[in-house]
Amino acid sequence: MGEAHPLLDIVIPACNERYWLKDLFSTLSTQDTSDIAIHLVCSGCTAELCCLDPVPPGVSIIRTGLGVSHARNRGALAGRAPWILFLDADVLLPRFFLIEVRNIIKSSDSDAISFSFYADTDDLMLRLGTRLTYYYLRVISRLLFPSLPGFAMLVRRKSFLLAGAFDTTLSIAEDVEFSRRLHRMGFTVSWCTSLWLVASTRRFDTGLAERFKTLRLYALAETIRLTPGLLLRAKLPQLPRRIHPRAARRRFPDTLPLRPPAHRPDENVDDAAARREQQSAIHESRRTRRLLQPWLPPTARERDKSR
Fold first, then answer.
1. Tell me, what CATH number does 220's domain have?
2. Domain range for residue 73?
3. CB-CB neighbours of 171 under 10 Å
4. pLDDT tens-digit profile of 202-249?
5. Does residue 1 fall inside a structural domain?
6. For the whole prediction, is pTM greater than 0.85?
7. What is the dihedral angle through the alpha carbons of 42, 44, 48, 54, rounded to the nearest 10 degrees?
8. Which residue, 39, 80, 111, 293, could crosslink 187 as a Cys pair with Cβ 3.0–4.6 Å?
9. Number of folded domains in the chain?
10. Nearest 5°: phi and psi at 63?
11. Is residue 109 part of a domain?
């Protein structure tokens, strides 16, 4: 992992997530990181659960006692690359992910970009919920304001600093607030719909009562954001911090029936003409239609394939 003039800084905030980090770094280990600097920010960790043992070569460890926004900001300020990729400790990357990120950096005019995502669980309800969340964020980004998830966000460093970084007073929806702030300041915020990764559903991978309690917190935060005049920090709910045990079984990227992305322009939420052109390309691509219907059972996918 190179340190001289890196192209990209990867910032990973973590709080007692050693076992989740092992999975993430196992997917990173298969990729070329020679021009990438990785910063693992341990936020409020206990010593025995903070980091990997041993720490992969070239990974810098930063310790801080504050929340996820502060951890992301600390990790970003520790680097010097022109681009920053924020990843949560529980995401999983396909083998081609960093190659495609390099292509985006070379060709994109956007200031902040996020990606398509799938669930890491076999639970059909959570898989469906994950894809619906993805489409919901894209629809909100088109119709109202950009809403990029912080667990996988690529940001131009200059834009990140000019926008003032993540709001450290928020413990939930800080990523959406940041992408919305970028948009208000005139920066370009986009979705790269062709590149995907696997996201964790661990906050919802509990009993039904806890699952609906967590969902209620997110729904309340979203209602406050969408209602004019109610975007008050004091009213945003606080998501409790807890240690999530490692899942007994996860869906890794290599097990998903998905291919590397075809190169298409970013989905710029500010450019209606570009959106229409890209939407037309999506409907013309049978492979992309299958990607847009991941919740269908295999038999239904085969029927769709034969049409």
1. 3.90.550.10
2. 8-306
3. 17
4. 776 666 666 666 666 666 666 666 665 444 444 454 555 555 556 557
5. no
6. no
7. 0
8. 111
9. 1
10. -110, 135
11. yes
